[in-house]
Specification:
binds nicotinamide-adenine-dinucleotide, Rossmann fold, 5 helices, alpha/beta, globular, single chain, five-stranded parallel β-sheet
């Protein structure tokens, strides 16, 4: 069974995605700091692995047995990003890039980064830079 590491998996998008992945037969490990609690996981809590941790500081054990990483973690909208731009950059840019680089290093071939907010604002340039650094294509 393929295992997906779902960063931000307790959030609005992540908790729905976790359920969908389980339905499709994937094993799911969620890494989330639980800023908004774990209510979104109430129906699947006994079927997922939950690692309560910060995406800015992820140990190698979190990647063990992982086949793919989906990243929907971090600050998810403009107001939270504007409230703390430093944390926003650390999570949404630096940590996202570090997670991708770790995947590459460990041979985890699929890294899915979901963020329409980034793509539709000035963050586009950041995304392109990240992709070039990772030798990925948009
Ligand atoms: N909600 C939408 O309608 C929507 C639409 C388009 C794109 N998106 C994008 O999808 C992504 C997820 O959106 P969402 O609405 O699910 O957001 P959300 O805020 O509900 O979920 C984000 C999750 O990330 C976790 N998180 C935040 N910082 C963390 C950290 N440092 N370490 C570990 N976990 C951390 C939070 O605890 C939360 O569970 C965002 O990038 C957002 O821009 C969302």
């Amino acid at each position: 069974m393929s295992k997906v590491l779902l960063v931000g998996g307790a959030g609005y998008v992540g908790s729905v995605l976790a359920e969908e992945l389980l339905e499709r037969g994937y094993a799911v490990r969620i890494l989330d700091r639980l800023y908004y609690g774990d209510i979104g996981l109430r129906d699947i809590r006994d079927r997922v692995e939950l690692v309560v941790a910060d995406m800015r500081n992820v140990g190698p054990e979190v990647f063990e047995g992982v086949d793919a990483l989906v990243n929907v973690g971090g600050l998810s909208n403009d107001p939270t990003a504007e409230y703390n731009p430093k944390a926003n950059r650390e999570m949404n840019t630096n940590a996202s890039l570090a997670l991708a680089e770790t995947c590459k290093k460990l041979g985890i071939r699929r890294y899915i980064f979901a963020s329409s907010a980034l793509f539709t604002t000035a963050g586009w340039a950041v995304t392109r830079k990240m992709c070039f650094r990772m030798r990925l294509r948009l």
